[in-house]
Amino acid sequence: MSFAPATVRFQEVAATGGWRIGIATLDAPATLNALSLQMVDALSERLKAWAVDPTVAIVVLEAEGRALCAGGDLQSVYREMQAWDGQGIPANIARFFEREYALDYLIHTYPKPFLCWGNGIVMGGGMGLMIGASHRVVTETSRLAMPEIAIGLFPDVGMSWAMGRMPGKTGRFLALTGASIHAADALYVGWADYHIPQARKPQVFRDLAGQAWSGDRRRDDSLLHEVLDSCRCLPEPASGPLRLNLDLIAELCRAPALDDVLAAILRYDGEDSWLQGAKASLAAGAPSTARLAWELQHRARHLSLAQVFAMEYRAAIWCCTRGDFREGIRALLIDKDKCPAWKQAHGADVGPAWVDAVFREMEAIGVPPSLLALGA
Fold this sequence. Notes:
Layout (H helix, E strand, L loop, with lengths): L1 E2 L4 E7 L5 E7 L10 H16 L3 E8 L3 E3 L4 H10 L7 H18 L5 E5 L2 E3 L1 H7 L3 E4 L4 E3 L13 H5 L6 H8 L5 H7 L4 E2 L5 H9 L7 H15 L9 H4 L1 H7 L5 H9 L6 H12 L2 H14 L4 H17 L3 H10 L17 H12 L5 H4 L4
Parallel strand pairs: 3-4, 4-6, 5-7, 6-8, 7-9, 8-10
Antiparallel strand pairs: 1-2, 2-3
């Protein structure tokens, strides 16, 4: 049985004992599967249906092309911001963030084993789809990042919560620099669970169809693990640049004040090309993003995941209506001049007084009931 709404395909594959496997495939390879509102709604509807279908044992999320998902549909978001008259909140943008975050939370709390096959580019909104899955695969081409520093947003889709729980100071560093990581580092920081070569994917899917699924969550989690574990192998190289530079990253990010951390990263003069690239991304990125990313991680430490999504919703709407998000998209994707005119500079422009005022403005942004109800 298959379903095909627009740029997402859904299929139910027969498995042993009358069970079925629900497979959702993002199918917009020309845009690196950039996540649109239509795709979000289609995924949400089908995942909710599979969650309560007594014949569906497990769910798989995959994609066509060279990306699982490179992020949200920023072209559409930009058009909405351009058309906005400055009054209230842009309705379609608010709707997108509301439904995207609700989808991400659904994946985090899904009642059945959920496999995300993270081949290729997994960034921004793609990380939102992957990070909450119960079983997460990376391949030899996986490249993962939260690169919002380049576009004036912030690491959202629940990543304020997830990045604050990464080992050492790695979450701080990746949020501030937008640096990308590959399979080995994704396994190390907990963004993935298995490295499996893409060529073994057909074997994995065949093995899934042959399992004796039971409907018991713990048992089925173990069966899925056994299939994936039997096909995994060490990535090459076995350790990535983040792990190899773990002590240095901890030193660069150890200060309690953001300005001191930024200064330490920007002073880096070593020869590691990955660290140099991270430094360059920070130097060119939006100061407002650096401050928001820092503050949101700090505030998320003692919040539930549901509360974090509500906080991120307010922050996302603020970025669209008062922040640098429009200018960041313009410079990167519309005019492609890569010369954004950020509203602030690092330092006092985005200091404690600025961030306090911004969060007071955010408190005035209403959170949709659907997000407030998460976790209830």
